[in-house]
Amino acid sequence: MTMDTIDFGRLYRDHLALATGAAQRTRKTASDWDSRAAGMAARAQRSGYTQDFVARMDLAGAESLLDVGCGPGTIARAVAPRLRRVVGLDYSAAMLEALRAQAAAQGFTHVETLHRAWEDDWSDVPVCDIAVASRATLVDDIAAALAQIDAKARRRVYLTHPVGGHFIDPAIQRVIGRSLTAMPDYIYVVNILHRIGIHPGLSYITQESRLADAPDFDEYARRVAWSLGRLDEQETARLRAWYGRATPAERAGQPMRWAFISWEKEPC
């Protein structure tokens, strides 16, 4: 067996099924994200991740951008002053409403939204100079998603995908008695791109754990449950007992790491 005989798209799908099966995790729906739109829009304004992502983008010669899985428009709004057209695409209607509201507040009249999921028909999604997918690539079929976003970019593509496959430090999972299978991480993306003749740039963004600034136990437990699924009474009790004796660094856990993956489109 060689690298050329391995179907990394199928391996990704098998890995994802393992990581989400047996009630290990509950997949997030559009309505789940709708409920978080306001909070995410507020946090985005102070995110070091956003500045790090945008600093790695090359906007030379670009006039338009497609932001896939845009959420409240964290990346889209950060680069909007330097572009003539910005299109935010997301399957959460509330996230798109947050983007429109924030864009209007900033005086951006060239920001559009499209209510679409990765799996939907993209025939009406415009081709833009640059396409990005920030923290939005844990999809059912990553090979199809990569082909889809590549087809909608004229010049460059930028995306981030988790490193390690955990959104909550495994040490904190063990506190409540769980041990989840890691989600498929970035190496699948790199290998799939290699198979189709794309040799991407690769670097890493480190982001502080979202548990780090939880103001009290109740909020801390809510954030843990968002990533791990509902906590039962025993799990909550274990977490509370540990929280009371843990240091701030232990409560925060390891920072989240994202692979920043980019490629230039070949001239037509």
C-alpha Rg, in Å? 19 Å
Q: Alpha-carbon distance between the termini?
A: 34 Å
Kindly state the mean pLDDT as a whole number?
91
Helical residue percent?
40-55%
Biggest sheet details: 7 strands, mixed
Question: Which percent band covers the strand fraction?
Answer: 15-25%
Question: Number of domains in the coordinates?
Answer: 1
The largest sheet has its strands arranged as 3-2-1-4-5-7-6
CATH superfamily: Vaccinia Virus protein VP39
Give the topology, please.
Layout: H1 8-20, H2 30-34, H3 37-44, H4 48-55, E1 64-68, H5 74-79, E2 85-90, H6 93-105, E3 111-115, E4 128-133, H7 142-151, E5 153-162, H8 170-175, H9 186-195, E6 201-207, H10 217-228, H11 233-245, H12 248-252, E7 256-264
Parallel strand pairs: 1-2, 1-4, 2-3, 4-5
Antiparallel strand pairs: 5-7, 6-7
Helix pairs in contact: 1-9
Describe the model.
The chain has 268 residues and is α/β, with parallel strands linked by helices. It has twelve helices and seven strands. The chain has helices at residues 8-20, 30-34, 37-44, 48-55, 74-79, 93-105, 142-151, 170-175, 186-195, 217-228, 233-245, 248-252; strands at residues 64-68, 85-90, 111-115, 128-133, 153-162, 201-207, 256-264. The protein has a seven-stranded mixed sheet with strand order 3-2-1-4-5-7-6. The mean pLDDT is 91.
